[in-house]
């Protein structure tokens, strides 16, 4: 199983960025997956998650700005980030759960930097 995250970069506050996570070696529709982020000096936190049924979860008020979705045919999950803020600056990781609900498979991370 491999997860390849991409799409990060430098974006101005108020702008948008879409992160992608291409999965190989598994079928996304069979597993739950999530997007995490880790800012410097802080612990990694779950930003958004999608159950294998398609149900979604978002951390706090991020639901108003972030959207998690997937394209099964492309084996790809996405995190659409709108109206980004400097506090969204972090390394973003995608991860897939195993059958026990534990996030076992991780992508390499992609840096998002929001400039004010």
Question: Residue share in helices?
Answer: under 10%
Report the C-alpha radius of gyration, rounded: 13 Å
Bulk shape: globular
**What about the largest sheet?**
7 strands, mixed
Beta fraction: over 45%
Distance between the termini: 37 Å
What is the residue-averaged pLDDT?
96
Number of helices: 0
Give the class from helix and strand content and strand pairing: mainly beta
Order of helices and strands: EEEEEEEEEEE
* Sequence stretches where pLDDT stays below 50 over 5 or more residues: none
Number of strands: 11
Descriptive report:
By secondary structure, the protein is mainly beta. A hairpin with a 5-residue loop joins strand 5 and strand 6. It contains no helices and 11 strands. Strands 2, 4, 5, 6, 9, 10 and 11 form a 7-stranded mixed sheet that branches. A 4-stranded antiparallel sheet has the order 1-3-8-7, with no helix packed on it. It is globular and about 40 Å long.
Produce the secondary structure layout:
Elements: E1 2-6, E2 9-12, E3 17-24, E4 33-38, E5 45-50, E6 56-58, E7 66-71, E8 76-81, E9 90-97, E10 103-106, E11 110-115
Parallel strand pairs: 2-11
Antiparallel strand pairs: 1-3, 3-8, 4-5, 4-9, 5-6, 7-8, 9-10, 9-11
């Amino acid at each position: 199983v491999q997860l390849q995250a991409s799409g990060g970069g430098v974006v101005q506050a108020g702008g948008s960025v879409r992160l992608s996570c291409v999965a190989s070696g598994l079928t996304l529709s069979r597993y739950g997956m999530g997007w995490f982020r880790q800012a410097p000096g802080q612990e990694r936190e779950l930003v958004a998650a999608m159950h294998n049924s398609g149900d979604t979860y978002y951390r706090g008020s991020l639901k108003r700005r972030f959207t998690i979705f997937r394209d099964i045919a492309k084996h790809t999950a996405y995190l659409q980030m709108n109206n980004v803020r400097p506090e969204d600056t972090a390394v973003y990781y995608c991860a897939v759960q195993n059958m026990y609900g534990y996030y076992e498979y991780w992508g390499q991370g992609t840096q998002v930097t929001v400039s004010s």
